[in-house]
Amino acid sequence: MSSWPSWVKICSRGVVLGPLVVGAVLAAGGGLAVVFAQLAGVAAVGAVIALFAVETKGRTLEDLNS
Predict the structure, then answer these.
(1) Domain count within the chain
(2) What is the arithmetic mean of pLDDT over 23-49?
(3) In this structure, what DSSP letter does residue 4 have?
(4) Phi, psi at residue 5, to the nearest 5°?
(5) Predicted structure pTM score
(6) Cβ atoms of 9 and 2 closer than 8 Å
(7) Which of 33, 37, 40, 41 has a CA positioned 20 to 30 A from the CA of residue 48?
(8) Residue 38 placed within a domain
């Protein structure tokens, strides 16, 4: 079992996958405009998720479940 928090694990996957995706797009003939469009798309999805997310700080599982 890992002692790292979940957000660290998730971010570390993004750090690994980001350069791989950028390299694949550039190797496939896509330009920097395509890379920046993908980055903007990921940021937009994150913004939408953040708008609808429920704040859980300081709340118990029982509070969140009801």
Answers:
(1) 1
(2) 91
(3) S
(4) -65, 160
(5) 0.61
(6) yes
(7) 33
(8) yes
Is residue 44 in a domain?
yes
- Calculate mean pLDDT across residues 57-64: 84
Contact at 8 Å (CB) between 26 and 35? yes
Residue 65 domain-assigned (yes or no) = yes
One DSSP character per residue, 6-35 reads HHHHHHHHHHHHHHHHHHHHHHTT--HHHH
pLDDT of residue 34: 92
Residue 16, both tokens: 């690994």
In-domain check, residue 37? yes
Task: Check the CA dihedral 18-24-25-27 and report its sign.
Answer: positive
Residue whose structure tokens are 């660290």: 8
Reported as a pLDDT band with limits 50, 70 and 90, residue 36 is very high
The domain of 57 spans: 31-66
